[in-house]
Amino acid sequence: MFIYVLKKIGVIIPTFLGVTLVAFIFIRLLPGDPVLLMAGERGMTEERHARMMAEFGFDKPILVQYGLYLNQLAHGDFGTSIITRKPVLQEFMTLFPATVELSLCAIILAVLLGLPAGMIAAVKRGSFFDHTVMTGALTGYSMPIFWWGLLLIIFFSGILGWTPVSGRISLLYYFEPVTGLMLVDSLLSGQDGAFWSAIRHLILPTVVLATIPLAVIARQTRSAMLEVLGEDYIRTARAKGLSPIRVTGLHALRNALIPVITVVGLQVGVLFAGAILTETIFSWPGIGKWMVDSIFRRDYPSVQGGLLLIAAIVMIVNLLVDLLYALINPRIRHTE
Amino acid sequence: MPDGVAQQVIDFRPVGRMALMREFWAYFSENRGAVMGLCFFVAIIIIALFADFIAPHLPNEQYREAFLRPPFWQDGGSLEFPLGTDAVGRDMLSRLIYGARFSLFIGCVVVSIALVVGVVLGLVAGFFRGRIDTAIMRLMDIILAFPSLLLALVLVAILGPSLINAMIAIAIVQQPHYVRLTRAAVMGEMSKDYVTAARVIGVRRLRLMFVTILPNCMAPLIVQAALSFSTAILDAAALGFLGMGAQPPTPEWGTMLAEAREFILRAWWVVTLPGCAILLTVLAINLMGDGLRDALDPKLKRS
Amino acid sequence: MRSMKTLLAAVCGASLLAIGAAGVQAKTLVYCSEGSPEGFNPAFYTSGTTFDASSRAVFNRLVEFERGTTKVIPALAESWEISEDGTEYTFHLRKGVKFHTTKEFTPTRDFNADDVIFSFMRQHSPEHPFHKVSGGTYEYYGSMSMNDLIKDVVKVDDYTVKFLLNRPEAPMIANLGMDFASIFSKEYADQMMAAGTPGVIDQLPVGTGPFQLVAYQKDAVIRYAAHPDYWAGKAAIDNLVFAITPDASVRYEKLKAGECHVMPYPNPADIEAMAKDPEVNLLQQEGLNVGYMAYNTKMAPFDNVNVRKALNMAINKQAIIDGVFQGAGKIAKNPIPPTIWSYNEAVQDDPYDPEKAKAMLEAEGVTGLKMKVWAMPVQRPYNPNARRMAELIQSDFAKVGVEAEIVSYEWGEYLKRSTDMDRDGAILLGWTGDNGDPDNFLAVLLGCDGVGKANRAQWCHQPFEDLIQKAKVVSDVDERTRLYEQAQVIFKEQAPWATIAHSVVFKPVRKEVVDFRIDPFGGHVFYGVDLK
Fold first, then answer.
1. Which of C153, C140, C162 is nearest to C440 (CA)?
2. Cα B3 to Cα A328: distance, rounded to the nearest angstrom
3. Contact list, B272 vs chain A (CB under 8 Å)
């Protein structure tokens, strides 16, 4: 197992170096001069322009810039935003919990609904329930979620007025962030209604973000279950007279979970992509929206640092999924 | 990542092509959803091809006297603009009809680019193995390390926002799936007897790669193509929605949505209809994709 | 410290909009702002969003603009004198002005001359210890040419400061009312420098302004409390909250739901509904901006004034107001907006007359003209949709036999290329005023110095230039008004631009908000506002 872990990490490190190079090159290729953009209609003199480019370090040769950048990274410095003048890492860390909270809630919702739905659909294959779940899952899978979010806002916030339109918690409540997760912080604050308010703000974005993972998990669980249910040992278990719940719940589920875990792990990248759209629609102050804003504002250091940090997180999560997978299924460790 | 999982492939050789098609159709037509999806998809193709004849108006023609007309069944609507008009008086129905062209175009272009490049890279990686394989796969790992939409956004920001650039960006982010699938399939085939036999009789390398091995790896690729056709439409719409895809006044559905966002509370039809069009088209393609997968091989799985 | 605690308790416990339910409740005004501030030091930035959150709430300047007007009034300076030759400005500072007390800083002295000198010299002198702190780019200070203008700022005594200029400059006083000229606390800066964290003064601002910053949750909420010892008297509201809400439809939803009291930048599409909404007061005013199309007057045939005039007459401006501004705009006839003093009402706009335009072009021997129209890739206050505007102009020009091709570039590139002397085509652009002085429009955009720079028409016309140069050095406002009125007449005759529109700013505020005034500079000022 140890060697397996080492091997995996051995692959990740060069990939990450590649990621830094790609992120760096991308940023240099971005058209548009950030300094000119800041000046706007006002314009600026050549001399001032040159001085500002020098201050941001954009005037050095590309290779030198990359070398300096790697050196900074090695010291944990992801650069400084040219808009807010704060370290990119600090910006990222203040916004990251909002995205984590939203993504966690979405993935939990997706698993809680998708797993049982997929299981039951598999057990009752061909039934009305099965058809409904599979149709629903395919629809969810085909959903343009930015539009789905708008529809939900029109209906639940606009027409019914049940949920707030945007934000993370009602402005009534104010407390210093402790964990950055609004649900936890609102409980810690001990203020009446704060927790409930945080939940109400979370509902719609969670539903929107959970839509695609939910569909994928339901479909995956169903097909994994179907396959397992056809295996010999399940038939043996049935023949032994074990109760159907024991058979499906214990024997089959445990084996069906293996591919499902992989799928859940793979959803991390999908969640990030979804977070970009969901956060934009709901004005959710997370890193997805921050990245989009940074791209539009030509905030080079933020885009570059953000790309790197997000890629690092995706890679780490994938590594963990691989390890978990290997733990559950020893066969994997020895092949490849 | 399950790239090591060898994909099972039906053997194309023993049966004749016609028989094979018949067998395929028998499986496919068993799936009612797939047939429905196919019908809808064909309908969309027809609409797109004959948009010039079907659409009641030109997509960018502005009727200055008819801003934000509701659909005909609502008060104030008329059959002149069956699905209403948008903020500058353009006919929604006509724009939606022309929009079908863009979506199909996006799907075709993205899938073609991604498929061709992906298959070549995957074949090379799987056939030669060794360093070239490592290099290609590391590159794919790098692409996969970024969330697809984010990478596409940055790529479009680099290339400049336009429909063509959005398609290129989406094709690039979809690349790794084709490469991995092809590579896995090729590696699976390489150990089979017929490949060894072909090698022994001295079949040339290129011929071996493209004529002997490739056709036997097609089934998973066809399914992946259907899948990425729908993802391409969704991603292009998302980019359009973020202002990084097709630029106004192009009647691309995602771009229409972005333009309509400010009317969300005042004119439901300008927001709802383009979204419906996207959803239905993508759903139809995915239904078809499911049918294809089941028909080509019941054991092939989506991930 | 004590006041901070009571404040927090008030914000936490009170029901926001149950105003009047209990007399003791703190009054909290919520403003649904359109975006996150870039930071809290107004000297670094140029966007109104940042100024709203920093200079207009937290800081004061030596002089300020009377709320709702472009008139300059005393603020931290009680009075001032200008020397005969116009190069020495002496300011007498207000006494007893207190800085904010925050978690990080407790002031031991009142505001004085040191703070003024610190605030200006930091921006002025590259040797100043704070010059490079937080990146050190002083956008406005540079672009208003303050570096060239100010020779030195000297302390006469604790409450008297002298600005020495290199040349006379009539708009100087107005410049000092601008956001970048906000006064920081030198004592705070020194303390932070000693602690090794000088950048803190730009993140956690301390000023003399009517509100002090309590907390900023990035991209979500900014919270302020009224400054209890504010020199002009404590604000009528106790707490001010900026709820950052980038989407305009969402802002309106929140306004309707009572989740906020004031919102900026409504969707043009929602204006009609807002006007009817009994809960909402819809305020409106022309913005301090102008959207124009500048010909390149150095290139044929646009060097011919009759051709420019003819093209101006071919443009159907009303259609642009309807189609592009959706009513949230007014036809512009002068290069300065009507909210600026010296606006010349008497000037007659070129009439919309395609027939005559065509005839004029033919008379000048211009037939089958092909030209380019540049459309900006971004949305600006003076032009919400340049592409659409260009399309309308294209079809208007087609009617007089001129074939226009629409071109566009990435924004930075657009701004740069459009200054080229040999630029091919007419360019859509605009300007938002900085200090409410006519000089800020007429000299910057149409003066001879601006050719090849901000003067996109590349237009240098001596009679016009003489007038605006003279107006720069006269300090008598009536005399300046007369000169600028004449300049506008010459501008109209020469037609280097097609003046297109001034935006109309709409501000929906809830009924319970008392005395909110639209700021002509596009800002949002909450001192003086009350809640019923």
1. C140
2. 18
3. 151
Helix (H, G, I), strand (E, B) or coil at B208: helix
Q: What is the largest CA-CA distance in chain A?
A: 87
Tell me: the pLDDT tens digits for B267-302?
A: 888 889 999 999 999 999 999 988 888 887 654 443
In angstroms, what separates the C-alpha of B157 from chain A's closest C-alpha?
A: 7
Instruction: Find the helix or strand (DSSP H, E) in which C28 lies.
Output: strand C28-33
Contact assessment for residue C29 and residue C237, using Cβ atoms and an 8 Å cutoff: yes
Kindly tell me the sign of the dihedral angle through the C-alpha atoms of B156, B161, B165, B168.
positive
User: Least CB-CB distance to B266: which of C270, C322, C323?
Assistant: C270
| Average pLDDT, rounded, for chain C | 89
* pLDDT at residue C17 is higher than 70: no
Mean pLDDT of chain A: 83
Q: What is the pLDDT of residues A272-318, one digit of tens each?
A: 888 999 998 888 889 999 999 888 877 888 999 999 999 998 888 88
If you compute the radius of gyration of chain B from its CA atoms, what whole number of angstroms results? 22
Q: Beta strand pairing status for C28-33 and C239-244?
A: parallel
Backbone angles phi, psi at C448, to 5 degrees: -65, -30
Q: How far is A109 from chain C (nearest CA, A)?
A: 25
Topology at the third CATH level for domain C26-36+209-279+511-531: D-Maltodextrin-Binding Protein; domain 2 (3.40.190)
Whether residue A53 has pLDDT greater than 80: no
- The single-letter DSSP state of residue C299 is S
Q: How confident is the model at residue B15 (pLDDT cuts 50, 70, 90)?
A: low
pLDDT number for residue C18: 37
Q: Does domain A92-333 have CATH number 1.10.3720.10?
A: yes
Cα torsion at C44, C48, C49, C52 (round to 10°)? 90
- Residue C292, chain B, CB below 8 Å: the answer is no
Check pLDDT > 60 for residue C5.
no
The rounded distance, in Å, linking the Cα atoms of C90 and C153 is: 10
Supply the CATH classification number for the domain C289-504: 3.10.105.10
The two most distant CA atoms of chain B are separated, in Å, by 77
Cross-chain Cβ contact C270/B88 below 8 Å: no
Tell me if A318 and B1 make a contact (CB, 8 A cut-off): yes
CA dihedral (B258, B260, B263, B268) in degrees, to 10, reads -120
CATH 3.20.20.100 describes domain B32-59+66-300: no
Residue in the structure block whose two tokens are 């920001």: B157
CB contact under 8 A, B266 and C323: no
The H-assigned helical ranges of chain B are 17-30, 32-49, 51-54, 92-128, 130-145, 148-159, 163-190, 193-200, 205-207, 218-241, 253-260, 268-296
Q: List the one residue out of C306, C321, C466 whose CA is nearest residue C392.
A: C321
The CATH 3.10.105.10 domain(s) of chain C lie at 289-504
The mean-pLDDT minimum among A244-258, C117-131, C240-254 falls in A244-258
pLDDT of residue B1: 36
Confidence of residue B211 (pLDDT cuts 50, 70, 90): confident
pLDDT, one tens digit per residue, over C127-179 is 999 998 887 778 888 878 888 899 999 999 999 999 999 988 888 999 999 99
The three state secondary structure string of A167-217 is CCCCCCCCCCCCCCCHHHHHHHHCCCCHHHHHHHHHHHHHHHHHHHHHHHH
Sort out which chain B residues have CB atoms less than 8 A from C249's CB and list them.
Answer: 261-262, 264-265
Q: Are B8 and B299 in contact (CB under 8 A)?
A: yes
Pick one of 3.30.2320.30, 3.90.76.10, 1.20.1050.10, 3.40.50.261 as the CATH number of C60-207: 3.90.76.10
pTM above 0.95, yes or no: no
